[in-house]
Amino acid sequence: MTPPKDIDAYLATVAPEARAALESVRKAIHAAAPGAAEGISWGMPSFKVDGKIVAGIAAFKAHCSYFPYGHEVLELLQEELKGYELTKGTIHFPFDRPLPRSLVAKLVKARIRVSGGARPRRTAGGPKRRPTKTRGDR
Fold it and tell me: How far is CA 11 from the centre of its chain?
């Protein structure tokens, strides 16, 4: 099977009840991180802020999952996540109970905070990388 090219193509492949749950979470992610770039990473929908993945979502046979892309986020929000099935790096939720918008906002903002925010980008006049030594330089 060819991987989907974008989130809409991914959602077209999942069951209607899962699609509705993922659409709800998708909207909540965009509300928490306006301008987040959508894409497909590891075959599932992902959302990037300043080039860093801050969230991922996916549908499975019996549940949907939210991927915060960092176990630290789950540790920071463990009180808010009581009642959800957690693995080391995901939150599982049933099709008929998407994650609340307020919880998604906390997850996204925690991930941005934990990942250190935006990376400084090198400009034309900015610092350059040192050349690496080759065998002939030794």
Answer: 16
Q: Specify the pTM.
A: 0.82
CATH of domain 7-115: 3.90.1150.200
Among 5, 1, 4, 110, smallest CA distance to 66 is for 110
Where are the chain's structural domains? Answer: 7-115
DSSP, res 90 = -
User: Hey, what amino acid is at 121?
Assistant: R
Cα separations in angstroms, 11 against 59, 63, 121, 138: 9, 14, 33, 54
Residue type, 59: A
Q: Which residues pair with 85 in a beta bridge?
A: 92
Alpha helix ranges (H) inside the chain: 7-11, 16-32, 71-76, 101-114
pLDDT tens sequence across 97-132: 999 999 999 999 999 999 886 444 444 444 444 444
Report d(CA 108, CA 68) in Å as an integer.
Answer: 7
Q: List, edge to edge, every strand of the sheet that includes 44-49.
A: 37-41, 44-49, 52-59, 64-67, 91-93, 85-86
